[in-house]
Amino acid sequence: MKLSQITLDPHLMMRTELNKHIVDEYAQAMLDGDKFPDIIIFNDGENNYLVEGFKRYHAAKQNGYEIINADVQMGTYDDAFDYALTVANRKNGEHYS
Question: Which of 26, 35, 63, 83 is most buried, by the most CB atoms less than 10 A from its CB?
Fold first, then answer.
């Protein structure tokens, strides 16, 4: 998916801030050829809401990439919020405190 087609809503990022150190690590790992899981997007018919993979998104953008692999699921904004709150980051990434 094109990065420019992704909607970043601060209410869907469940952390108070983006960990720049991890974004930098991911960006370098991407340049080194490491493969990352697809980001998760919810599409409500108009918007492609990013719900999981904010650091991967920002690392790709930092590297100047225009496209990122995405798992796109159909759903409302409320579905996106529920996923971001209850499912995102349960198995990997920077876990909630």
Answer: 26
